[in-house]
Amino acid sequence: MGSSVVLDDFGTGFSSIKNLVLFPVSEIKIDSFLAKEMMIDKKAEILVSSIIFAAKEAGYLLTLEGVENEEQFLKAKQMGFNMVQGYYIAKPILEEEFIKKLLN
Predict the structure, then answer these.
(1) pTM of the entire structure?
(2) Residue 43 in 3-state DSSP?
(3) What are the residue ranges spanned by the domains of the chain?
């Protein structure tokens, strides 16, 4: 069994490029703020595209957080994200409910 380091909320708060240099990160999760902004602001879309390009060149996996509808899902796929996270895929559930769904 292995482990990996995921940099969460990239693009906001304390998740900076510095952390990509200092820690053995394998995956970058782009913050949900950017998921919303890239749909309505061309500048935000260009910045996210640049992050995707640089991250892929450096070998990181990319997840887009906060995907809430089909339009965001299709945009994430078109832009090259490896994974998405958000209500469009599934809402949070309790552990017991997850186990029940997993077993059925």
Answers:
(1) 0.86
(2) helix
(3) 5-103
